[in-house]
């Protein structure tokens, strides 16, 4: 299988060398690596240039955007600029953050996973360092969710979902739309991916309402949004996520934000969410 990797990078001088080294040490090398230098003001570009000069599979593109690190549109816009440079002669397209260390057998194991033609999206499990320096799984996810920091897409699935949405919620709606098109999402517990910077550490404070906005744009409806937000609040032992999500949802509705999915896709998503809610509610585990 041919793997093309796109890495959006904004002020990643502290991490990007480790990310690129982990790619170059893969037992199955990617065929192309596009690093999008997204308006960096540190030495990120110089580091990318050092690698691109030494390794022909690595290419750089410069992108000018906002210096504010907001989840969603900024990273997807950078990804899409990198994607525009690529030909269509690939089997798997990978969106990778610039603060990730992949295990050396990452693409080798993904190749085995993607032999199942039903699999549309695949990836490993994120680990972050605790205060003692131990790598721990700090963000437990369902087996059918791959973190946005390291997502691999089968070409036909990527095309079916219309690529990545330039909006907050892109890394949830992609999986929902993959399921809508009858693909499955698969993670491999043995692929422990090191995430060097914890989620959200670089986000602007204005991002706090965007989760609720995403739920509106995915056509969750207020009831599912409330249930999902209560779950988030319970996990974080704080009422703040619930309040912010509801405020974000209401704000997006008042502003008549553009939906990310069609009415038919939205109906499928709501039914899927209700199915998941009822299964967990009535589960005896």
TrEMBL record:
The keyword Glycosyltransferase applies. Keywords: Glycosyltransferase, Transferase. The keyword Transport does not apply. One of its GO terms (molecular function) is glycosyltransferase activity. It comes from the Bacteria. Residues 5-146 form the Glycosyltransferase 2-like domain. PANTHER family: POLY-BETA-1,6-N-ACETYL-D-GLUCOSAMINE SYNTHASE. Belongs to the glycosyltransferase 2 family. This is Glycosyltransferase.
């Amino acid at each position: 299988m041919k793997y093309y990797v796109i890495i959006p990078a904004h002020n990643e001088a502290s991490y990007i060398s480790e990310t690129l080294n982990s790619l170059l040490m893969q037992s199955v090398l990617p065929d192309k690596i596009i690093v999008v230098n997204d308006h960096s003001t540190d030495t990120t570009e110089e580091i990318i240039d050092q690698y691109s000069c030494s390794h022909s599979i690595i290419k750089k593109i410069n992108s000018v955007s906002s210096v504010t690190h907001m989840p969603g549109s900024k990273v997807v816009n950078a990804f899409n600029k990198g994607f525009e440079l690529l030909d269509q002669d690939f089997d798997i397209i990978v969106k990778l953050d610039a603060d990730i260390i992949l295990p050396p057998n990452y693409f080798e194991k993904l190749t085995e996973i993607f032999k199942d033609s039903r699999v549309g999206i695949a990836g490993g499990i994120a680990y972050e360092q605790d205060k003692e320096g131990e790598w721990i799984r700090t963000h437990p996810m369902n087996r059918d969710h791959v973190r946005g920091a390291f997502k691999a897409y089968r070409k036909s699935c990527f095309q079916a979902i219309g690529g990545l949405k330039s909006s907050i919620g892109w890394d949830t709606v992609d999986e929902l739309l993959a399921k809508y098109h009858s693909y499955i999402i698969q993670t491999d517990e043995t692929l422990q991916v090191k995430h060097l910077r914890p989620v959200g550490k670089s986000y602007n404070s204005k991002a706090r309402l965007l989760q609720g906005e995403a739920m509106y744009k995915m056509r969750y409806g207020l009831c599912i949004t409330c249930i999902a937000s209560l779950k988030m609040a319970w996990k974080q032992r704080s009422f703040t996520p619930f309040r912010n999500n509801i405020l974000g949802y209401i704000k997006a509705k008042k502003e008549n934000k553009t939906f990310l999915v069609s009415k038919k896709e939205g109906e499928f998503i709501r039914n899927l969410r209700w199915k998941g809610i009822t299964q967990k509610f009535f589960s005896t585990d």
